[in-house]
Each structure stands twice: as structure tokens, then as C-alpha cells.
Amino acid sequence: MIDQDVIDRSNAVAEAALRADYAALGEHLDRRGIDIDAIKDKVAAYGVAIPSWGVGTGGTRFARFPGNGEPRHVFDKLDDCGVIHRLTGATPSVSLHIPWDDAAPAELNAKAEETGLRFDAMNSNTFQDSGQPLSYKYGSLSHTDPAVRQQAVEHNLYCIELGRKIGSKALTVWVGDGSNFPGQTNMTRQFDRYLGAAQDIYAGLPEDWRLFTEHKMFEPAFYSTVVQDWGTNYLIAKELGARAFCLVDLGHHAPNVNIEMIVARLIRFGKLGGFHFNDSKYGDDDLDTGSIDPYRLFLVFNELVQAEGAPDFDPAHMLDQSHNVTDPIESLMSSAMEVQRAYAQALLVDRAALEGFQKENDALMATTTLKRAFRTDVEPILAMARLEKRAAVDPVGAFRASGYRARVSEERPAAAGGGGGIV
Amino acid sequence: MIDQDVIDRSNAVAEAALRADYAALGEHLDRRGIDIDAIKDKVAAYGVAIPSWGVGTGGTRFARFPGNGEPRHVFDKLDDCGVIHRLTGATPSVSLHIPWDDAAPAELNAKAEETGLRFDAMNSNTFQDSGQPLSYKYGSLSHTDPAVRQQAVEHNLYCIELGRKIGSKALTVWVGDGSNFPGQTNMTRQFDRYLGAAQDIYAGLPEDWRLFTEHKMFEPAFYSTVVQDWGTNYLIAKELGARAFCLVDLGHHAPNVNIEMIVARLIRFGKLGGFHFNDSKYGDDDLDTGSIDPYRLFLVFNELVQAEGAPDFDPAHMLDQSHNVTDPIESLMSSAMEVQRAYAQALLVDRAALEGFQKENDALMATTTLKRAFRTDVEPILAMARLEKRAAVDPVGAFRASGYRARVSEERPAAAGGGGGIV
Amino acid sequence: MIDQDVIDRSNAVAEAALRADYAALGEHLDRRGIDIDAIKDKVAAYGVAIPSWGVGTGGTRFARFPGNGEPRHVFDKLDDCGVIHRLTGATPSVSLHIPWDDAAPAELNAKAEETGLRFDAMNSNTFQDSGQPLSYKYGSLSHTDPAVRQQAVEHNLYCIELGRKIGSKALTVWVGDGSNFPGQTNMTRQFDRYLGAAQDIYAGLPEDWRLFTEHKMFEPAFYSTVVQDWGTNYLIAKELGARAFCLVDLGHHAPNVNIEMIVARLIRFGKLGGFHFNDSKYGDDDLDTGSIDPYRLFLVFNELVQAEGAPDFDPAHMLDQSHNVTDPIESLMSSAMEVQRAYAQALLVDRAALEGFQKENDALMATTTLKRAFRTDVEPILAMARLEKRAAVDPVGAFRASGYRARVSEERPAAAGGGGGIV
Amino acid sequence: MIDQDVIDRSNAVAEAALRADYAALGEHLDRRGIDIDAIKDKVAAYGVAIPSWGVGTGGTRFARFPGNGEPRHVFDKLDDCGVIHRLTGATPSVSLHIPWDDAAPAELNAKAEETGLRFDAMNSNTFQDSGQPLSYKYGSLSHTDPAVRQQAVEHNLYCIELGRKIGSKALTVWVGDGSNFPGQTNMTRQFDRYLGAAQDIYAGLPEDWRLFTEHKMFEPAFYSTVVQDWGTNYLIAKELGARAFCLVDLGHHAPNVNIEMIVARLIRFGKLGGFHFNDSKYGDDDLDTGSIDPYRLFLVFNELVQAEGAPDFDPAHMLDQSHNVTDPIESLMSSAMEVQRAYAQALLVDRAALEGFQKENDALMATTTLKRAFRTDVEPILAMARLEKRAAVDPVGAFRASGYRARVSEERPAAAGGGGGIV
């Protein structure tokens, strides 16, 4: 873990400038009729979940270049997640992935308490074989063979069972099922098999749990995927029942798609389950959130803030990124703050003015109203929220100063790198 | 019109070669267990509707370069459509667009009888002002002003009224509504306004009619559209009721989208209304059907043939193209035949074998089964179907030989070309 | 024109808040080692050209909904451009389009003097027929018929001739040439014909002029375009000679393309001619600059600022947008300021730090260095630059207060709207 | 290997039908003025190289599901490649990948002789660490550290050295270099470093060798790649010298890009080096050639056939696919035949007629000329070419009948599957 001393020392250096920036921004926002402290309090209360797998170094089908001190198991991962939360105050929960993170519930709970974290949604894995008797090479929940589907259903039920013991309240299902060739699968029958299996999982869902299904346009299947877009995902959630919802991963869409509109539609029809935040330029690039198109992230949050307070509106927020060239802890801290930033900017939108411009078809002033909120530099708000929590004003700086990575590198042996024989 | 003599003379030249090709293909298909005459009969019975606006020369926002002998009004258009059907035997109906084709029902019916055509779906137009008192600049069915929505609803009801008098059984609604700027519109409220107005139209739909709504990703709105994809379109059809269905235009999707899968999903959930056939490489290019990616067209028909015979499965087929550099009559004939071609190829798929390969996850043989059907040159089947109807074996050749274009050019004055001052 | 009084009154209201914001930002930047006044001076000296056609209401192939008080001719257009420059102080020049803006040079020069503007690059038009004897339906500079090519060349030479008389120093050539069908054209021969014609134009270029050619992926041609991407455009500029350069329009690329990298490559090989600024989500949407992806615009300017000061580096900056739902004057003012904003943000990048992070492969800190500059709210810098020029602190507000649009609407009769019979 | 007996028995069953089909097609083509035997001879003489890595099962970043009897090393791979060539007669050469296929030249030559194969281009690998002292995590030929660049150069020189000893005449260089974040790299300096290192490789190229560089839009780098498109690749080849050429991989482009036009441009400027054939729907999907868009493949070959016979025109043809759900031997055989099919179809284009239609701007007949060639079922031509070589009329059927896969599965132990901890 990180010593509070390290953080405090780092904050001491930054505090004066931060207070000056915060005061100046406060005056500026006051002129716009906005109470900076109210915004800060909402930001301070906001949290985004960390995926346990995110703290390991990512890779591509070509290669994986491991970093130093990579976590060996879920307990190391929880340590790393604890560091992220300690430094940012923005990531109170962790989402486990089974079987990668399978462990005794008591030990998981103990570690969570130690690191000050709780457990978010459980993630099942039926896109790898992972030592199961039957292979998922040709699909899992939608496989032509009922025995394979049954195996995949049971794995999901196991994830629920484990999740119940550690306080999770949701199961996230993403499958790699699809096809690589026209004709390889009957797309309708494959969908129906998927639906049947998903219903079996849903039947095992505790009353106070939610089931999240996730669409993806392509990869690892390259001709069709069984849950290819939000339309299919909506139909699945609708067929399953009231506790089934759709997850939106920002990199799982076709090129040029208006993602904030998908968010708006899912909200409208009561099926927005939550997010896997990341950014992308080409496909499911899993880049750091906000690193490619920060305005798009803001526009998503603009929809969320607009829907805030609606009954039963409670989307789950999680990061989901692959850190191939950065220290995963640094990227996750940075990304958690980008999510907060978008949220803070969206809170600054003058919604009464916006509504007026929309009513009058004053497109220029309507869009300027959004841009004005977006271009406000809310960094002092975020940093002040951190300072008041005794998290770090500059989390990356404090992390580097702490020597944490070097320290764990000594305990954790270097992981194997490599990559398939794939071009 | 075209003299039967012209056609017969043209056919006389081609007949011997056609019969030889047909016989050889028949023997080949016989070895594959397929009765060529049965395929030919299904092809002969197949028809695709012509959009009345398709017989005029198209254009872009940059320019429109008129052709010779362009139709002046709906009666000229029906003449041209009659020529297309006479030569191909494949286009028995015409889809009108109001107000462009507004005319006295009795005269329309008389002309239809004269040209041997019937009327397909009616198309409303609320994407242009067209002399209406209120402007559609900021939307029509989804406009913020209820008076504009009312005007748009009434126009649609008028289209139904006219359609009833000429034997149409469906209304197609496509709107240009959307926005050009983030924030210009509240996407959820805009959708709800659209839905309310669409319900008003649906309320006026005769019992034996269907309502087709059409999604489109972009253009003329360039940030968001109110019916942006099939997911939203499905939700609209679902909300409206049992006689509301979704139209699929092959050029209205995001890049890389698997269109045949959308078709499969809409079939699965009972909401496939029909097609606007064309082809595209970049956007809503409205190119000739099958001219860019003929295999994709085949894969769509593969889904349709697979669903043939299901209860209540009766999608409407129409061409929808913009002919900027070709003679519209020639392009429409050629495209109608491309649609027939894809249908014929899809009929050749060995579905029992395919199903077996799918069951065994034999992806290579499954896809080869489709490819084998696709690569069969079915031209002799299509041509024989035409010959037997005394349509033209070579419609484009017969059309050119007929002198029709030159003849109508004398009667029909040159249309204005031009284009907006738009770069 | 706009009275200085109107502007001054508007500024008087805003000045105190602006001075407070500017002072606070100045202190903040000072802590980052940046002199705010130096940035402001660079921004104040920066200008972007207005395209004459931009002040008219745009449209799509579906419809054009005219606005009030649309300019009737080039002199009205220059009045509108004068207003834009008066209010923003950021648009000192206008780019004419021939034949739309053809007029007597003396009158053009007189009007320019009156409105305080000068003339930027000349734009030729061979994508419409515009009363020429030979049609461009099947191409212009690349047409199979040498007479058509000759006509197109002569038109370009005429544009140069006119441009010389009004002080222009560049010719911009964009053609709609391409094809709608595979096989319609031999793509290599078409390219060679284009090249030959472009060489004829280049031969007529004065010694102190530059020739800008512009690539575009699609539209109005929907299968291929003769200058489809920057690669082809580079080869053209290379073949033509030292005074030929490539223009980059932000909406003319394939989906997902890294535009800032194209800018970097063209700089590297000495062929970046300049920009047509706008924004796009789907294709050549011609939306307001920075309205969809402001970070992308910043990244382009990041390349430009990095290259500043290199010998012979002098790209031309112009807006090129289609204003379908906004007042063109307002959109152009707003867009000119967005371009300035991106420039100002790019000036804030700590380049020494960036270079260090790049050297050390510290991807996180490198990208954070860019983001830090981008998220700085530079509005006070831009507004102060305007205030000091006695342009408007709030150009849109001042414009609305001025009553200019209502005034010109009285003089300028309503333009025809409408749209082709195109779906 | 496969016994000739197995092939002969399989052919005996198919021969009568094939001869009937061939005769019928011959008569049909004769009516079109085409000599079927001449086409068959050209097809018979055509060969495409197999990449050694293609005979192993592919995978994605999510998982790799190994097949049975996967090759353990280059000698097993050559055995598999020998089978492919024996059955199709279409794949006379193999392209090695170093270090995966590193072995003693004498043994490689002996094995090649045994399997009846020769060696095509050598492929270097600097996108994985592969036991090198310095890591390629942050780049190889473009790394900021000259020592890393030097290591990468030397590896390429080693590939040349090995290649010389086994009769190869070309080196293919593809790098994964790029960046994942805006600002991570100075794109211009990175390019210059790449260029410098490539020049060092070029300096070591034997006089009778060619250097192929390959562009790719994205993956494994997800923000920028150092050779992102054909434009950059052209500039590299140009800078390097007369023996440097550009490779075109069909899956390495932006969405919607007109690939056949890129081919045409590279031919025009003398820099087309060759192809990596595969097919894709979304990105670098590496699907079987012709499986997604067979018409696109045909259009590429249409450009190649048009350029045939030009001086110094000699592109290298290779497959490059990832076989995730099929038997690699079957997919490679099938793909080799798809390449032949496209070639045969392109040979059928009536080029005199096409040229005439192009000259007259008869777009419909021009494109119909291409379509007519494309829709001709040339399978009898391909099969007859195989029969006459005593390769298999039905290679997949004969392969399955041969029991080869089961046989090698006994000798070759099951490979490890798995996949990274990457979502």
C-alpha cells in the first residue's frame, strides 16, 4: 500500500496552487450561477469500478510485453486496486473475473476489507477454455451442443454463487460467440440457443441482483457475433425480464456510431445497465478512457446527468481497458479521473438554458451551451475533492514518488511475455 | 411503350444460345439434385417494385446532370415503369411518392391499367417543404412545435387516403428529422414526439394496411437521426402495433455492419417489413443493386429464402436508387434482374447439407455450400423466365434497339439541371 | 455593417468578468511558466479565411431550407464576411468561388476595401455545368474527351486571371471526377488524364502563386474518386512541381483515419498546402469546426505549432462548412473562434516536457501533457484578443443585438428553397 | 504426404461430371469468343505462396483454440504446405517467418526438395521480443533508442542472409511500431527513425532481391502506426530505392476504402510489390480469401490482369490468414483456389468492349462487362487445371479422405491453447 505520508507530502507541494485555482474557478462559476462546492461534493461522491484484470499488463494477438511487478493473483490485484482508490478516492469497488480471480470468499472479503474496497459485478468467462472439459472453440452459451451450453450456464451460476458470498449484486455476461464465415452458423438458431441459455442463467439470479449483457460488433468472431449491437442486446434484456439490462462498452460499436444516442435510447426504454468505459479509435482498442475523444465521453455523461434522479435509474460504471504500454495503475487512476471530469463537466451544463434553445431550434446556442460546460477546466474541482479525502492532488506523481511499483516488483516475479504465432 | 415486335426480334437473335446455356445448366443442376424448371418458375413469379422517382435522373448536393427525355410527371413515370416491366417481366408494381406524384386517383388507375402495373406502398414526404405552410427545416414528425407535427401527420393521412383509392396497401414513412449539433435536440424528447406523431398516423391506418418505418444512420441530419438504426426502428414498430414493420434500406447502416444479420433479427422478432434495394460503398450512395457487393445481396436473400413459408412472412421488395450517370430505365432493369439473380442463387443453396455442416461446426463446408450456390451462373434461368413471358432476353439491348428514349425525348422537354451553391 | 457602438456596448457589459477571468488564467499559466500575453498576441495575429459560399444557407441533396436575408451575390457575401471579421477580428480574408462570385475586379477590390477584407485562394468549379457548353456529367479535368478537359483547364486559368487582379495568390482545385460503378472508368487512365490537365493549369500559374489540390474519398462520385486520398494527392503535387501543394479538408477521409498523422506526413514531405476546416461525424458532413470532435482539431494544431517556424512552412487556413440549420454568420464566427481556440491550446503544450516523455517512452505523461494544454479554458485569451481589437467579446451576442440579419432581410428577397426529386 | 492413389481415386469419381461441365462452359465461352483452354493454361501456371505460419491454428487476443496435429516446427509446416500444393497444384512456394522458422539452410533446402516446394519472401519479426536482449515494447525499427533499432536492423539482415542460402529473393518487413496515445510519439521523428533503419536494411539487400514494406492502419498500435497507409508506404519505397516496393494486405485499410484503386495507383507509380491475400469485414480479420467480398477480390485481379505484361510488373502473391475455426490446410487450399478463381474471372473480361464503353461513358455496359466475367462459374476451368496436374478435383474432399490430419495428430502432440488475461 501507499503510506498516507507520501500522499500528504505530495499534496503539501501542490496545495497552494490548487487553492488559488479552485478559488478562481469558484468565482468564475459563481458568475455563471453555479456553486462550485455543490459540484465538488457530487464529484467526490462519484465512484467507478476497477476491473481486476485491468491491473495486469494487456496485450494483443501479436504480443504481450509484461511490465514490472505484475500481480500474480487476485490478492495482488486487490492490493493494486487499493492503491488506485487510495490515491484517487474515486474507485471504491472492484469487478472480479472468474475463473481468473477464483478464490475462497472469506479470503476475498478479508482482502477487500484490508484494502478498503468492495466487490462490484462478477464477470464470467466462456470465451476461453480455462480447463473446462468441453471446448468453447465453436461457442459457449449459443453452442450447437446442449452440453456445452449447460457447462457455460453452470459456470455463470457458479459466478453468481461466489458473488453472493462477497457482496456482489450483478453478473456481467459477455461471450465471444459468433462466426467467422457466412453460413458457419444459422444466425437465428444461434441467437435462440443463446437466449435459452441466458434464460437459464437469469433463472438463477437472486432477487436483488441484476444481469448485464454486453453487445460487441466483432472480435473474437469476425463475421458475426451473437449479440452484435444494442438492438439485439435490448431484445435479450427484454426477453429475459425486469432485472436484465444492457451494458455499453464504448469500443464495441460500428464506426461513426452515435454512442450517446444509444445511451439515450436504452435509458428511454429502461434497459441501461451500465458502462465499460474506455476509448477507441478503430475497434475495441481498449485505450484509456477519454484519451481519444474526450468530447464523446462528455456527451455520454450529458445524457446520464440529464437522466439523474429518474426512478430506478442506476447504471453501473466500470473501467475496461487494456494497458499495453503504460503502468496499469497509472492508466487506471488517470482514467478514473477522466470519467469524473466528464461527469463534472456535464454537471456544469446550464440545463434550463439548453432546454430553451432546443425549444426555439437555436442549434448554435444549444451546442454552445454544451461546449461551454465541456471547455471549463474542472481539474481544480476534481483535485479539491481528492485533497479533502486525503487522496492525492496529483495521483500519478504521488504514485511515482511512493516507489510502490519497484517494491512489488521485488515480491512479484517477472511474468512471461510472448504472443501467439499469429500474423 | 415498347413494341412486342422489337422484343421478339431481339429475342430471336439470342434464343439459340440461351437454350443451349439453359440445357447445360439444367444438366449441371440435375447432378446437384436441383430441378432447374422449379427454380425458373419461382424466379418468374418474383417481382420487385419500382419507385416512381427512380425513373428520373438523380443527383447530389453538388449537382444534378439531367438526362434526355426525363419524365415530367407521374404519368410519364408510369410509362417508363411500364417499359421496365414489359422488358424484364420483373417489376409489376410502382411505389408513388407524394406530393411529387399527386394526381387524380381515377387517372392514376387508368394509367396503371394501361401500363400493366399496380401500386405498391405509398411514400410520404416531410423532408422538404413542398409548399406546406409550415417549414420542416427543424423536423417534421418530431418537431418541437405541435402544429408542424400535425401538418406532417395529416400529410401522411392524405397519402393513405390517396393510396386506398389506387389499391395500395402500405405506407412508408421516412423522415429526415435529427440534428446537426450535439445539444441541438433532446434526443429522448425528440424520439417521444416522433413516436406520438407516428401513433397518430398508425391510428389512421386501414385494417388491411401495413406501416413501414425506415431507419437511416445519417443524412440529411449529420449528428443524429431520430430513427438511427434498426434497434430504434424495431422499438418504434413494437410501440405502434401489429401492423407496423421495419424497412431495411441497404445503404442506411454504419460502416461494416452485418446487414443480413439485421434482416435475420427482424425476421426473428416478426418485424421485417421489407427492403429498399440498392448498393453502397460509403454511405447512402444509392448505387445500382448488386453493383458493389453482390455477395452481400445474396446473403440477404439467403436469410429470406430460409424464412420463406413462415406464417405472416411477407416482406415488401422495392428498388431505391439514384441514377446519376446511367439511363434510369436501364439501371432499374439491370437492378431488378440483380435482385432476381440473388434470389435464384439463394434458392440453389443446399439447405439440408448446410444445416448438417452448421450442426457439426464444419465452417469451411458450410460457407462453401453458400459459395457454391452464389457462384453458379443463373443467368440462363433468369433469361429463360423472361423469354417465356415474352419479355426480353437482353432487356438493355432491346431497350436500346427500341428507340424509346429518343422518342420520349422529343415529347418531354429538357429538365433543368444545376445544383445548389454548396461545397 | 455593424456599428462599432453596438460592439462597444456589448463589450462594456462583458468586460469586467473577462478581465477577472483573464487575470486568473494569467496567474495559473504563470505557475505553468507560460506568459499569457505572448499567447494572446499570437492568437490575435492569427486569421482564418472565410469561403464566400459559406455565408449562404447550405443544404443536402434532399432539401435546402433557405434562411432570411441570404446574400444575392458576391457583394452581399462580402458584406456578410465583413461583419464576421468586424465581430471576431479573426477572418481577414475571403476565398471566392468562380463562377458563383464572378464580377468586375475593380468592383471586387472596392468592396474588399470597404469591408476591410482581402482575397484568399480562388476556387474553380468544374463539378457543375454552370452554363458551360460541354457538360461535366462524366468528369471535368479527367474526362475522356479532350475538349471537356480543355474547357475545364481554361476555366481554371480564368480563375487565376481574375485572382491576379484582386490580389489572390493561390488557386484551389477540387473536382467531383470519379465513377459510380466498378469498370465505369479505367482508374489509371483517368488519373493520367487528370494529371495532364492539372499540368496545363500549373503551367499557367504565376511564379508567386501556389496551386492547392484537394482529395476526397467519395461524393459526388460513389465508387471511386480521381483524387481519393492524401497519397494520390501527394503524388499529384509531386508530379506538378514545387508550387503545388495538398489541401486537407477535415471531412474528406475514410472513417477512423488519423488525420493529424496525414498532416504530419505532408509537412514532412513539404507538401502541406493548407486546410479546409470543418467537422464531421460520418462523411463530408461540413459541420461547424470543432463541433463534433474538438480534440481532433487540437491534435491537428499540435502538429502545426510543432512545425511553426520551419522554412517555407506556410499553410493556408480556411473554413469550409455547410450551414443548414444555423445562421451562417453565427456559425462562421463561432467556427473561426474554434480554430483560434485549438491554436491557443496547442500553443500551451509544454514541448520540452513532451519531448522528454517521448524520449523515455512515458506514454501516460506524454499524452497528459497534451491533455493538460487541451483542457485549459483559453476563452479569456481569445476574448481579450478581441476586446483589444475592439471586436466583440461575445460575437454572437453582439450580432444578435445588432439587428443585422433583420436589416439585410429587408433588402435581400427570400431565396428559393426546395430540393431535387431525390430519395 | 498424400498418396497419389488417394487423389486419383477421388478424381475418378468426379471426372465425368467435370468433363461435362468443362465442355459446356467451353461452348459457352466459345460463343463469347474466349478459348477455354487458353484460360485454363494461364490458371494452371498461376501460383500463390503459403505463409508457413498459416498452417498453424490462429487465435485472437482472447483465446487460441488449438487444432489437432498442429505443426511443431518448420519441417512439419513444410510437410503441411506440401500437402496443400500436392492437392491444389496452386501453391508452389512457402514464405518463412524468422525466428519462428529458423533452421539450418541445408535442412530447409532438403525438406523443400522433398515436399516439392521453393521458398518465397522471408518475413522478419520485430513485433515480439522473441528472446532478443532488447525489448520491442515501445517499437523496433522506429524505437527512440538507437540500440533497439540496430538490433531490429540486424535481425532483418540475418533474415536476408538465411534467405540467400535457401533461394529466397525478397524480404518482407512489417512492424508493429506506432503509438497508443496522442503525444506518445512524435510521429514525424518516429517516421524518420523508421526510414533510417529501413535504409540500413536496404543497404544490405542483395542486388537481385526486393524489399517489401507493408502498411497497416491499426493493431497492435491503436492510435497511430508508423506505416499507416499506402501513401506513407509509397513514400518509404520511394525513399529507399528502386528495389523497394509496397505490399498490399487486403485487411490493412480504413473502412470503405477502395482497395483496387490503391492497387492501380501503386502499379501506376511502379511500386506495387505484391499482396497478402485474405478477407475482412471489420479490420485485419485475416479471414479466408474471398470469403466475405469475392467481388472485391475480382476487382483487384481486374487491375492486375489489365497491367499484365507491363515491363517490370511482377507482384508477389501470398496468402496471409488466421485460421481460428477451420483446419488450416483446408482453408489454405480453399483460399488458393479463390485467388485462382478471381484470376480466371478477370481473364474473362472482354477488355476491348470494356475500353469502348469507358470511352463512351457507358457506365452501365462497362460495369456489366465486369459483372459478366465475374458471374461466370469458372470452377470447371480450375478443376480441369488440377485434374491435368493430377492434383485433386476436390482438394478438401480428397484431403479428408486421405486421413492426413489424423495421421499427423498421432506424431504431433497437442499444442497448448489458452490466451492472455485480456478483456
Describe the fold and architecture.
Four copies of one chain form a homotetramer. By secondary structure, the first copy, chain A, is α/β, with parallel strands linked by helices. In chain A, 48% of the residues lie in helices and 9% in strands. Chain A contains 15 helices and eleven strands. In chain A, strands 4-5-7-9-10-11 form a six-stranded parallel beta sheet. A three-stranded parallel beta sheet of chain A has the order 1-2-3, covered by helices on one side. Chain A has a two-stranded antiparallel sheet with strand order 6-8. The mean pLDDT of chain A is 96. The interface between A and B is large, with 58 and 58 residues.
CATH topology description of chain A: TIM Barrel
The appropriate CATH architecture of chain A is Alpha-Beta Barrel
Q: How much of the sequence of chain A is in beta strands?
A: 5-15%
Task: Name the shape of chain A in a single word.
Answer: globular
Number of strands of chain A: 11
* Domains of chain A (count): 1
Looking at how many chains there are and whether they match, the oligomeric state comes to homotetramer
| Largest binding interface between chains | A-B, 58 and 58 residues
